[in-house]
Every structure is written in structure tokens, then in C-alpha cells.
Amino acid sequence: MKKLLVVLGLLVLVPGLALAQGAPPPTGGGSATYYVDYYANNWGPEATYDQIIRIVNVGSLGTPLTSPVGDICANIYVFDPDQELIACCAERLTPNELDSAFVGKDLTFNTLTTYIPPTGVVKIALTPPPTGGCDPTAPLTAADATLGAVWGTHLNTTGGYTFLTETGKGHQTLGAGEAAFLPQACSFALYLGSGRGTCRSYVSTGQH
């Protein structure tokens, strides 16, 4: 068993792993907002350790008793280190519901390029659900990060040690150009992929 590390002053013990809770980063401004995260040391869907992103519908638009009023869409866009969109997906969350996705097992297991990148970026746009359900190729003009909260874990390796950190995410400004680009790039990837380029996340009984 590897030595235990103290990360950010908080130590939680698991075999060969140290877990730390960090503070949320600064938030952005603007009329449209979204969440941006990164992944590193992504060892694929069969790896012993994986990173996970969790999303909660905070209930800004309704309560569990009013669903489908109050539901939101979590639109997820996954990029490789060359800034190419390699996968996208969307999940509907009812008020107070939790959604989760592993980076290796769920977000990068079925990339457009078939290559599983070790590092990259994940962007999450939360929107009210359009008629017909959630669709990552739908416009993001109504994206509003305050509809939910996002946490993410990250695998870190240094000096022969492996440890895990977890942070809450602060929202960032979603510019008009990026708001138009993300669903267009997703549509293009799904068209070219013919079944590839899709990711997945899980709610309710499918939780990790």
C-alpha cells in the first residue's frame, strides 16, 4: 500500500488513495453561464481508478412535486487536448436529482476518434428542457449555471504517489460564439461518428 498523503489539509483514507475537498473556484459573470472542468491521468474505462463529475438540479425552477416543471438538461461536451470535441451527451434531471459520469467509463469510452485521451476538457451547460427532451445539439442561449451545482474529482500522480482531489465548480461566462459552437460541433461529431462520439451519464438508480 502506498504512503498516505495529506492534500489541502484534509485526509480521507482509502486503499492507495488520498481524497481532498477543495474550495470552489471564482465564478464568472454574464447573461449565459456554464461549467468548465478538466481531466488528467485518464487511464480509460478499465482503469482501477477513475475520475467522476456529479451534477445536481438545485430546484431553481421547481420542486420534485412539480416535475416535469423544474426539470433541467445537463448538456455535456468532452474535448481532447487538441481542443477537438470528441463526445457529447445530455441528461434530464428532475429537481434535487443527482447525475454522475465517470471520465473513463462514461465520457471518453466512445470517442469520435476512437482514441481515449489522457487529458482534456469537459464543458457542462445547464438549460431548461426544450419540448421533446434534452438534446446536446439544441441551442444553448438559455444556459444558466445557477440551475445546478457541479463537483468533480481529479486523479493526480506525483513522486510515485496517486491521490484524488474533489472540488466544487464555479460557473463561467458562456460567450455567444461558444454557445453556438458547442451544439454545432456536437451535431457534426454525432453525424460523422455513426454511433461514436456519444457519452453518457446516470441519474437515480444508475448512480455511481
Fill in the keyword field for this structure.
36% strand; 2 helices; mainly beta; 7-stranded mixed sheet; 5-stranded antiparallel sheet; 208 residues; 12 strands
Overview of the structural elements:
The two termini are 25 Å apart. The protein has a 7-stranded mixed beta sheet with strand order 1-2-10-9-4-7-12. Strands 6-5-8-3-11 form a 5-stranded antiparallel beta sheet, with helices on one face. It has helices spanning 103-107, 176-193, and strands spanning 12-14, 17-22, 33-39, 52-57, 72-79, 85-93, 98-102, 120-127, 148-158, 161-168, 172-173, 202-203. Helices cover 11% and strands 36% of the residues. The chain contains 2 helices and 12 strands. The chain has one domain (26-200). Strand 1 and strand 2 (17-22) form a beta hairpin. With 208 residues, it is mainly beta. The longest helix has 18 residues, at 176-193. The model is unreliable at 1-30 (pLDDT under 50).
